[in-house]
Give the backbone structure.
Amino acid sequence: MLSTLVRRTLLCRTQFQVTSPRTFSANQKTTGSFLQTLKNVGVSSLRRTTTAAKASADVAAIQLLQPSQRLVGFWLLGCAGLTAGMVALGGITRLTESGLSMTNWDLIKGMKPPSTKTDWEKEFLTYQQYPEFKYKNQDITLEEFKWIWRMEYTHRMFGRLIGVAYLAPAAFFWAKGYITRRTKIRVVVLGGLLLTQGLYGWYMVKSGLEEKPDSHDIPRVSHYRLATHLTLAFLFYSGLLWTGLTHVLNFQNIERTPAVRRLRRFAHTSKGLVFVTAVSGTVDRTLQKRMHAYNCVL
């Protein structure tokens, strides 16, 4: 055993002595390059392993949260459907000229409609104090007033229904941990839009209840406020729809080819044109009615 060790030591010294400095330097560079290559391969392999592990963890998390995420998605899509119905009901209220029939706004007390003849007469007397009755509906009967009042009442109660349908499940899902961190931000923003929409709706109606002695226009809400009110509704609906679909559908990464980019531009352009047409239509319709009223006065 000892003799073997001695022979190996002598052999190593002999090889070291016969090796020229140039050869030794080349061998050293080769060895260093080889070690660096091994290091790079090891780091690359470790990164691929870590990335694969993270991807597997994400897939497992998605599979674990999929039932709750789909439930959140269906809730948001349901709210989007209610919002679409609200926009349609608001359009009907606008066309039937019922929006100024309710002259007060109270979140709780306003939920109780008149139930007796005395209550209806009191509500009708309150309506008679405002410009729409004085300058436009002087010959309206109590029964006709009931019809337009109920139309506006339905519109407001539907808005309260959307508020309950959004806020109550949002609090429940938040407490249960069904809402992810990214979705929480969207839920808060959409909740702010909803509250702003309700408050701005009354601010819009208030513009049609103000006395304007120097004006010959038929009392109507401000078309600028009406356009803003509709814009808020579109933003709220779009946010609900997009967030809901991301929780229900299984999205896949699509290669961004020129054809896909053209399709995206076409879709966004079409959406923008629809939005501009709808919002500008509220302004155009209001101006047409005001011009008609002005011509009648002349």
About this structure: Residues 21-95 form the longest helix (75 residues).
